[in-house]
Write a structure and sequence with these properties.
The complex is a heterodimer of chains A (292) and B (299).
Chain A lengths: L5 E12 L2 E11 L3 E5 L6 H8 L7 E6 L2 E2 L11 E4 L11 H9 L7 H10 L13 H12 L6 E5 L7 H14 L6 E6 L2 H7 L2 E6 L2 E7 H7 L1 E5 L1 H5 L8 E4 L4 E5 L2 H7 L5 E2 L3 H9 L5 E2 L1
Parallel strand pairs in A: 3-8, 3-9, 6-7, 7-8, 12-15
Antiparallel strand pairs in A: 1-2, 1-4, 4-5, 9-10, 11-13, 11-14, 12-13
Helix pairs in contact in A: 3-4
Chain B lengths: L1 H10 L1 H27 L7 H18 L12 H7 L1 H4 L7 H34 L5 H28 L2 H44 L9 H47 L9 H5 L11 H5 L5
The chains are: A alpha/beta (292), B mainly alpha (299).
């Protein structure tokens, strides 16, 4: 039984770069769940993930992983964490056999059996050099390595980007298997919102370094909706009631963040269910308010 | 740390195999010279030429082959940067001390093996070439090994400090050029001194014998000065090998801690080079890509 409620706790995380600021980000990844981390390019997803992994140092704020502050935690906490990145971080000259020999002496709970089992499942060659692997093979290899030392937390940064749907589907199934253990958690950043809709329990949406939404995926999808109406009807809607609106030639689509109260307020309006992708699209354009 | 040591040795294995092959090849060449001097074409030359050939070959083996030690040294800091392993290892459960320590331990172990092996081979070659095994051989092997270790540690520090191949190469190249120039300057100064002193001694000898001043060539005396200097150096190394070892070891220790400190800095502590800024979709979007961030393209 874990002695922490959240696998990851982020409080007021701030990081400045020239021209970009990760501004006071706070969210939690509950233990035993999978959180989707969404945002467009340049939103700050990788910056946040790199701070969680202690690859970069935040300017201020607190990050706790598996109940321990990352700044002061013993390096041994990394025994329980696996990171998967969008590019393979292993030398091209290595092969799976050599990687097994390396990581066997790095992770206390490394299981060569499990690793080779994943290699077989993913149909990855054991002696072929990584430099000769395709992108899909490299990603599967990373995931095989990440899942072979009984990690409690899997952190993935665009791990499924660039993979074909078949491979992505396979990998998502493996993540669901990983989560069968209640002590396991996943933080997964991705552009592919359909993947997150399929497996995520909660989502966090970040844009231009600011946190826009964070919560249970089903609740977010339930609360948000798209109003499809004519331009005349759109004029009757108060602008404060919508996130943003896409103005087309024949009508308007407007995102609302509280379907229940909006449908009570504007009884004639039809509010359709929405998707994470649409939510992302409308929130990204929230400053413009009206766009096309 | 075993895992990282294995990784260091595995990545360097090609270089090590090539160095082994080079050592064996050069050793065989030396043996061939000896065989030629005993049974072959070199035997047909006059005794002085044969002795010179054997001397040069012997000392080439003893000191020249020390250079092959550099091929055995492990230094994968550059490869780690290129493959992004240097970022991945920040997520692994070992400290910067262990990372740098693994490379140092690998090098120390390899150099120790080489030191022992080359000492034994030198002893064998002394028997083959009928040469005397001098104690100072061991001190020179030891100091040479330490100097190679030191040079490798400096190169490693450069990569950890700058995290950029170009800057690191510039740094350690500049350092070695300065050292080379210092030695070259010292050598030229010493040679000038030899020439002056040689000329004076030649003129003095000629004057004592009542002969013209240019009777004797200064070169004859210069060779003796060089021999004296080499013997002094050998004696110095023999007497103070422990002091030289301590000094080199102290510098290596300083480089170790400096490397650990350099490695411990966050991944974005180093400003990006122009090459890095070009790759906008690199692995770790936020790392040093400040220009990309300003364009709103920081992941």
């Amino acid at each position: 039984m874990a002695d922490y409620e959240n696998a990851i706790e982020i409080k007021n995380l701030t990081k400045h770069y020239d021209g970009f600021t990760l501004d006071n980000i706070s969210f939690n990844v509950p233990s035993g769940s999978i959180m989707g981390f969404i945002g467009q390019n340049g939103a700050g997803k990788s910056t946040t993930i790199n701070t969680i992994l202690n690859i970069i140092k935040a300017d201020s704020g607190e990050v706790k992983v598996l109940g321990k502050d990352t700044r002061s935690a013993d390096v041994q906490i990394k025994q329980d964490i696996s990171a998967v990145f969008d590019e393979l971080p292993f030398h091209d000259q290595l092969n799976a056999k050599a990687l097994d020999k390396i990581l066997r002496h790095v992770f206390k709970r490394w299981s060569s059996e499990v690793f080779y089992g994943y290699l077989e499942r993913f149909q990855l060659p054991v002696k072929k050099k990584f430099g000769q692997f395709s992108k899909g093979m490299k990603m599967k290899l990373q995931i095989a390595a990440a899942l072979s030392h009984d990690a409690k937390l899997l952190i993935m940064d665009e791990a499924t980007t660039g993979l074909d749907p078949v491979v992505r589907n396979e990998i998502l199934d493996i993540f669901l298997e990983f989560l069968q253990d209640e002590g396991h958690s996943i933080l997964m950043s991705s552009h592919i919102t359909s993947d997150l809709e399929r497996i995520a329990d909660s989502v966090t949406f970040i844009d231009k370094g600011k946190l826009l939404l964070s919560g249970y995926k089903d609740e977010i999808l339930e609360n948000h909706g798209v109003v499809k109406c004519s331009k005349a009807d759109y004029e009757s809607i108060e602008k404060g009631d919508i996130v943003s609106a896409r103005i087309g030639d024949f009508g308007v689509e407007a995102m609302v963040s509280d379907r229940q109260s909006i449908s009570r307020k504007y009884s004639g309006l039809v509010i359709d269910p929405t998707t994470l992708e649409e939510i992302m699209l409308f929130y990204v354009n929230r400053d413009k308010k009206e766009w096309c | 740390m075993k895992g990282i040591i294995f990784k260091e040795l595995y990545i360097s294995r090609k270089k090590i195999y090539i160095s082994i092959a080079t050592y064996i090849f050069l050793t065989m060449l030396c043996i061939l010279v000896k065989m030629s001097a005993t049974f072959g074409n070199i035997r047909l030359l006059d005794k002085e030429s044969v002795d010179n050939a054997l001397n040069i070959t012997f000392y080439f083996f003893v000191f020249g082959l020390l250079v092959t030690f550099t091929g055995f040294l492990v230094n994968n800091a550059s490869c780690d940067l290129r493959s992004h392993w240097s970022i991945y290892q920040r997520t692994l459960p070992f400290t910067e001390k262990q990372t740098v320590g693994a490379a140092y331990i690998s090098n120390a172990a390899l150099l120790l093996v080489l030191f022992v092996f080359h000492t034994l081979m030198t002893a064998i070659m002394c028997m083959v070439f009928n040469m005397k095994f001098h104690a100072y051989f061991i001190w020179i092997f030891l100091i040479a090994s330490l100097l190679f270790f030191l040079a490798n540690a400096l190169i490693m520090f450069a990569f950890y400090r700058f995290r950029d191949k170009r800057k690191a190469t510039l740094f350690y190249s500049a350092f070695f050029v300065i050292v080379y120039l210092a030695f070259a300057f010292a050598f030229i100064s010493r040679e000038t001194y030899y020439q002056t002193k040689g000329k004076q001694d030649a003129e003095r000898l000629a004057a004592l014998q009542g002969m013209p001043a240019d009777t004797y060539s200064p070169d004859t005396f210069m060779i003796n000065y060089v021999k004296e200097d080499i013997q002094s150096l050998a004696r110095f190394i023999q007497d103070y090998w422990w002091l030289i070892t301590v000094i080199i070891a102290a510098v290596i220790a300083v480089l170790f801690f400096a490397s650990v400190k350099a490695l411990a800095r966050p991944a974005d502590a180093v400003k990006p080079s122009k090459e890095k800024e070009k790759t906008k979709h690199s692995l770790f979007g936020s790392l040093g890509r400040q220009k990309a961030a300003a364009e709103g393209d920081d992941d």
